[in-house]
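Worked example

This section walks through a single chain of length 415. The input is the sequence exactly as stored; nothing has been trimmed or padded.
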Amino acid sequence: MSTSLPARHPDDHGEGGQEHVPYVNFPGAAVQNRRQLLVKLAWMSLWMIYLVYPVKDLTGGTHGTAATGVGWVALAVFLAAYLSLVALRSTRPADWHGKYPFVALMLVLAVATSFGLGEAWLTLFTYASVCVAIVLPPRLGLRGVGVTTALALAVALLIRADPDTLAAIILPCFLGGLAMTGLQRLIATMQELREARAAVAHLAASEERLRLARDLHDLLGHSLSLITLKSELAGRFLDQDKQEAARAQVADIESVARQSLVDVREAVSGFRRPTLPVELAAARTALAAAQVTLEAAPSVLDGWPGLGPDESGVLAWALREAVTNVVRHGEGATVCTVGADRTWEGDGERYAVLEITDNGPGPGKSGPGNGLSGLEERLALVGGRLETGPGARGRGFRLRALVPLRTVSEPSPPA
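Given that input, the structure is written out below as tokens.
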């Protein structure tokens, strides 16, 4: 008995948005409507060809009228139990226990008809063996098939079945049940694979949402902070009747807003990857608006030879986040220093280091915000890490972003 059912695909739609169900069978899928159930029962009916032996026995005139009538009734009940099991099992949950009485009825009919009507009815044990393999759990299916085959063999020996009939019926009884046990395991494996694929898709969607949230936080946090500063400057210039200076600030606000719109679109599309030179220029503009002097070492623009694009992009994000923090929280800061270096860990791993320090009030007692948490996640994705704390002599705030330099071939420093 197969458990193949019509497949359903999210892109199979008919006219008017109605879902179109194709006639492609999908092992382990659930029956969705009546038409699918009828198609399945039609396929199951093809296996009824093996009931030709009991039918031939009833039509051969070897039994009396009463025995023949009882035989037809028993065969009809057996066939109804078989098809009912197929139909109900396809529409009930996996833990439905109503399937066991049907299998028990089929076994009773197989034993009774074999004793009462002869060896031709031993064929019913083949159907019973297949059903036993289906309804039992995978760990018990093989044992159930073995017990059913042993029962069929015992009945055949008790009724003194012909040796040729014995081989022709008992062997298919075992092999049919064994094949169905393997099919059930295959279906269970396919279901687990589909569930795993759905879980992977869900994780990928969650990771994409997390990436988008980090990008939008960093992009808009930096841009909106700069727009706020320039708006305040424009207001001050207007109060002082400095029209040209205020107009210049408004033009800068328009430029930052347009660039922010481009950055957001690129972030949504997944194409946004900042670079250190671009972020350093943007940092200089933002810090100048906040009246903070930027002191950047020349090595920052030179970068690190062999540093991958993902690692370089993460360092650019680190620079953007650090500058945004200085603009937002570095009240009283006058100088922001950016340096580039490299270091070797105890296990010989090389790291590129980007360090940003200001002379503001320091980290304070509050914990890291969303920006630093997102930056730490970005660094973890490339095998790096984030270090934050007070600057030199306990003043200001220092941020160090470290990413591995796996492609740089340089001798390790002496111990």
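What to look for: The first helix runs from residue 34 to 45.
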